[in-house]
Amino acid sequence: MGDPDAAVSFHTVFELLIRTAEKLPLATRLYGDADLLRLLTQQAGDRELFARTRPSALCNAVMPILHRHGLTRHDRPWPDQAYTVHAVLTGFGMAMFDPATAPLNVDDPAEVLADTVAQLLDPPVAPGEAAITSAAADTIAVLRETRDAVLELIERSQVTGE
């Protein structure tokens, strides 16, 4: 299936992230629907959970892991890198979900974003398998915790009608 290291590159991950988001109606609705966001965050606990699932919060949770394991460049601190990824994704989201805001029609926006993030974050030397495995385990733990909290909120709201 090609280069195994490519499967964990920023280019591959961000291209997959964008192509997946483009297919999810909820992602599109959440981006531009203030009323839906208000409804989803009426309860204090829901607001806290929603804040934890925002791209900026996930960047702040995952970037230190990637940085610590050598999966990102080390010429900038991880908070700077998280800020950069968040800013690029925010701008890309605006262009993707409201194409009229984009300056030009691009053939493959996901490819452009993936290439941009890879240039911003890829370390000069590819990390070894042990670093990738450790970073993956730590990242999956963070994402599972968030997923479990969201699933718990959904289950609670269905049972209690909250």
Topology:
Elements: H1 10-23, H2 25-32, H3 34-40, H4 44-53, H5 55-68, H6 78-97, H7 109-121, H8 129-160
Please name the defining characteristics of this protein.
single chain, 162 residues, mainly alpha, disordered N terminus
Structure in a nutshell:
The chain is mainly α and 162 residues long.
Mean pLDDT: 79
**DSSP summary, beta strand count:** 0
Order of H and E elements? HHHHHHHH
3D shape: globular
SSE-based structural type: mainly alpha
Q: Which sheet architecture does the biggest sheet show?
A: none
Radius of gyration: 17 Å
Q: What is the helix fraction of residues, given as a range?
A: over 70%
User: Could you tell me the strand content as a percent range?
Assistant: under 5%
Distance between the termini: 46 Å
Uncertain spans: 1-7
* Tally of individual helices: 8
Describe the structure.
The protein has 162 residues and is mainly alpha-helical. It is 73% helix and 0% strand. It is built from 8 helices and no strands. It has helices at residues 10-23, 25-32, 34-40, 44-53, 55-68, 78-97, 109-121, 129-160. Helix 5 packs antiparallel against helix 8 (129-160). The longest helix has 32 residues, at 129-160. The radius of gyration is 17 Å and the shape is globular. The termini are far apart.
